Amino acid sequence: MEPERTEKITVNIGPVDLGRIDLLVQEGFFTTRTDFIRTAVRNQLAASASAIDSTVARRTLVLGSQHFSRRDLEAMRDAGERVHIRVLGLATVADDVPPDLAAATIASVEVLGAFRASRAVKAALGPRIV
After folding, report:
1. What's the pTM value of the predicted model, to 2 decimals?
2. Dihedral sign (CA 122, 96, 110, 127)
C-alpha cells in the first residue's frame, strides 16, 4: 500500500481575509498561509467532531483508510461476495487489480475523501462511484 499523501484543494479567499492571514504569518503566529489554513480546518473539524462521529456511525462508514488488494477481491469473487466500499478518508484498490475483477466484486463506492485506483478500474466501476 502506498503511503498516505495529502490532497490538493483550491480555496478562494477575499483580499481582506487573505491580508489578515498574511499579517498573522508575518507576525509569526503561523509559518505559512498553508499552516494557517490547515490549523483552521483542524479546529473546525474538532468543533464538529460529535456530528462527524454520529454521522459516520449512522452511515456505517469506515473511518480512516481501507485498501483492497487483488488477493482480497479474488477471495470475494471466489466466495460469490461483493463489497460496498464506504469510507471517510482514503480508499485504495491495488494497481494490479484488473478492471473485470473490480467490476465483479465492487458493488458500489462511496468515499468522502480520496479514492485511489487505476484509471481502468475507475472506468469499469463508472456509475457505481458515488
Report:
1. 0.79
2. positive
